[in-house]
């Protein structure tokens, strides 16, 4: 169900969203949009149920009348073959088929306007968690400005219960082309557009990992631009925050660390507290705290890390990380260093 005007768009978009949804659903049960677990997603889901019920009733009435006419007035043996009487003009019928659809459209648009404004005008409490989401070809950057944390592809947020409400407010923007942010179980699909900030909020009501996908075609690796939202209990979330804020503990005498810091990797990647301050690729400060690599493309293991760095174009062809020429020794050293970034 789309809430913003730009999203009401094309059939193609719908098909891509639907196929993303179906694949998310078959592979991971936690992508099921029919089981909303945050207020915005629940409101959108109720609205779509209402729409489906209305459309289904219209279908049943029309199809029922049609079936009745076809059967009841079918030609039978002995019927006259001449044309039946033709009836022209009936004010009652004209008025009925004008007014009823107008009423239906009115109800649907009012219900949509109500839900749209309820979601968009929600007051964000002062203690909400603010996260800036930046879409990149083909990964997600998550910045927590108040906590001074930057991470990628896996968004950690706290659980929100009635006893302890914790709202998360997301500012969405893009570093390059238009992307779409959609976590079916948490909130409606929202465009991620360069030079513009869209906002959504979520109040997830169950812990767990929620899956989403970039929902607007953004180039060759669009399909491999998954989002993982990890909803932690407030205590776990606090622990995660502390871990993310911990400084890099490497020593200058560490050869593996030197191998990384003297490589071209640092042009594009940041490791907080070191001379690596690149901002083109994902922040690697706490790389090992992520379960997956490359927007959920592959599990985060040392072997997969090595494979990726050795030949990034093999795993995600066309992506923005070049193959950096490294000897096997350098590669091992860099992987060894990266695996210390807890
Ligand atoms: Cu995208």
Descriptive notes:
The protein is α+β, with helices and mostly antiparallel strands and 342 residues long. It has helices at residues 11-27, 39-72, 91-120, 234-245, 255-261, 265-268, 302-310, 312-315, 328-338, and strands at residues 129-136, 139-144, 149-152, 154-158, 168-174, 179-183, 187-192, 198-202, 208-214, 226-232, 292-293, 298-299. The protein has a five-stranded mixed β-sheet with strand order 3-2-1-5-8. A five-stranded mixed β-sheet has the order 4-10-9-6-7. Strands 11-12 form a two-stranded antiparallel ribbon. Strand 6 and strand 7 form a beta hairpin. Helix 5 crosses helix 9 and helix 7 packs across helix 9. Bound molecules: copper (II) ion. Residues 135, 179, 214, 218, 222, 225 line the site of copper (II) ion.
Secondary-structure-derived class: alpha+beta
Secondary-structure element order, N to C: HHHEEEEEEEEEEHHHEEHHH
CATH homologous superfamily classification of the largest domain: Cupredoxins -  blue copper proteins
How much strand? 15-25%
> What is the number of independent domains?
2
| Mean model confidence by pLDDT | 90
What is the number of strand segments? 12
* List of distinct ligands in this structure: copper (II) ion
How many separate helices? 9
CATH class of the largest domain: Mainly Beta
Estimate percent helicity: 25-40%
What CATH calls the topology of the largest domain is Immunoglobulin-like
Outline: elongated
CATH-derived architecture of the largest domain:
Sandwich
| Widest sheet, order of strands | 3-2-1-5-8
- End-to-end distance, in Å? 39 Å
Largest sheet descriptor: 5 strands, mixed
